[in-house]
User: Which sequence fits this backbone?
């Protein structure tokens, strides 16, 4: 069984506002990854996503082993939010949305925004490298 990746822009229930609020609410991982309760939260979905836990690593065996989200370190997870149709696995620069009805997974990758002064410095450096 393969997992379908689909764009969150086509999913009406996962809005940009929701995504931004998740990043804001879960800025940093908890002091102890066991506080997340990942093993308990994902217990009903172990068979659906072929989830296994080994120490501080959660494996989603339904994904290709070359997928960067195949193994997720629990200490990198900032928070877990149970939504109406999804479970959001919030990390500092990405969110995995696991569909609670089927084994669909959506990924949101946070865009890096560079402050204005860094863009100016980068532009000046690129000019000097061209000379």
Assistant:
């Amino acid at each position: 069984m393969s997992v379908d990746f689909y764009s969150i822009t086509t999913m009406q229930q996962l809005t940009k506002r929701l995504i931004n609020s998740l990043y804001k609410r879960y800025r940093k991982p908890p002091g102890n990854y066991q506080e997340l309760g990942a093993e308990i939260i994902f217990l009903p979905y172990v068979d659906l996503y072929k989830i296994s836990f080994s120490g501080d690593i959660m494996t989603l065996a339904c994904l290709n082993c070359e997928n960067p989200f195949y193994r997720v370190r629990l200490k990198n997870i900032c928070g877990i939010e149970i939504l109406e149709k999804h479970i959001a696995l919030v990390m500092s620069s990405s969110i995995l949305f696991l569909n609670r009805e089927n084994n669909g997974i959506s990924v949101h990758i946070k865009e890096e925004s560079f402050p204005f002064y860094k863009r100016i410095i980068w532009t000046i450096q690129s000019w000097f490298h061209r000379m």
In short: The first helix runs from residue 16 to 25. The radius of gyration is 18 Å.
